[in-house]
Amino acid sequence: MLNIILIEDDKDLNELISLRLGQENIKIYSYFDFFDLETFLDTNEIDLIIMDRNLPSGDSVEMIKHLRKKGYMEPVIFLSAKTLQKDILEGFEQGCDDYICKPFDFNELLFRIKAVTKRNKTPKEQISYQDFTLYIEERKLTYKTNTFENLSTLDVELLKCFFNHKNQLLSRQFLSEQVWKNDTTSDKTINTAILRLKQKIPQIKENIISVRSVGYKLC
């Protein structure tokens, strides 16, 4: 079953999409405006975000730009009455995976949902390090008899980067490029993300060491 966040301020359209997708055995988390997406994504496994381009609180492009910078890589489909080419290109440039112009046919929306989630589906894969095993698709980590589930996309990307480069000193610039997919992530953002990861998984705390003014190393 797919888990999808829908953010659409048109009440009738929101209810219609929720109803139709529910009939397709899709679980919908429905909202009418921006909310604390980061916290929600940290605690729930989400396959797709569908959001209106223009919401009461502002342009959704800025929200997606912020999420991508923070390392949240869940696929996004924009629904929008902004149909000019420059608006569509802006949406893709800032990180959306598809852009559907209003009005649209529901069957088209369903087809695009299936296409986006299929191509963004992470192949089944697992990476091991000492007694830790990271299950990429399931977004979980096991350590001996302990299991940590519902890891955020950022948690998984950080762990994957460390596990793939164990015993190597990773600069913050490298982490920014590999995990956040840009070269502008601030040191504070990176430090905070790693601190939260250590708090969430205490067993790995001593393995990830900080090298002053340089970066981090998994050893």
UniProtKB/TrEMBL annotation:
<keyword id="KW-0902">Two-component regulatory system</keyword>
<dbReference type="Pfam" id="PF00072">
    <property type="entry name" value="Response_reg"/>
</dbReference>
<keyword id="KW-0597">Phosphoprotein</keyword>
<dbReference type="InterPro" id="IPR036388">
    <property type="entry name" value="WH-like_DNA-bd_sf"/>
</dbReference>
<keyword id="KW-0238">DNA-binding</keyword>
<dbReference type="Pfam" id="PF00486">
    <property type="entry name" value="Trans_reg_C"/>
</dbReference>
<protein>
    <submittedName>
        <fullName>Response regulator transcription factor</fullName>
    </submittedName>
</protein>
<feature type="domain" description="Response regulatory">
    <location>
        <begin position="3"/>
        <end position="117"/>
    </location>
</feature>
<dbReference type="GO" id="GO:0000976">
    <property type="term" value="F:transcription cis-regulatory region binding"/>
</dbReference>
<dbReference type="InterPro" id="IPR001789">
    <property type="entry name" value="Sig_transdc_resp-reg_receiver"/>
</dbReference>
<dbReference type="InterPro" id="IPR039420">
    <property type="entry name" value="WalR-like"/>
</dbReference>
<dbReference type="GO" id="GO:0032993">
    <property type="term" value="C:protein-DNA complex"/>
</dbReference>
<dbReference type="InterPro" id="IPR011006">
    <property type="entry name" value="CheY-like_superfamily"/>
</dbReference>
<feature type="domain" description="OmpR/PhoB-type">
    <location>
        <begin position="124"/>
        <end position="219"/>
    </location>
</feature>
<feature type="DNA-binding region" description="OmpR/PhoB-type">
    <location>
        <begin position="124"/>
        <end position="219"/>
    </location>
</feature>
<dbReference type="GO" id="GO:0006355">
    <property type="term" value="P:regulation of DNA-templated transcription"/>
</dbReference>
<dbReference type="GO" id="GO:0005829">
    <property type="term" value="C:cytosol"/>
</dbReference>
<dbReference type="InterPro" id="IPR001867">
    <property type="entry name" value="OmpR/PhoB-type_DNA-bd"/>
</dbReference>
<feature type="modified residue" description="4-aspartylphosphate">
    <location>
        <position position="52"/>
    </location>
</feature>
<dbReference type="GO" id="GO:0000156">
    <property type="term" value="F:phosphorelay response regulator activity"/>
</dbReference>
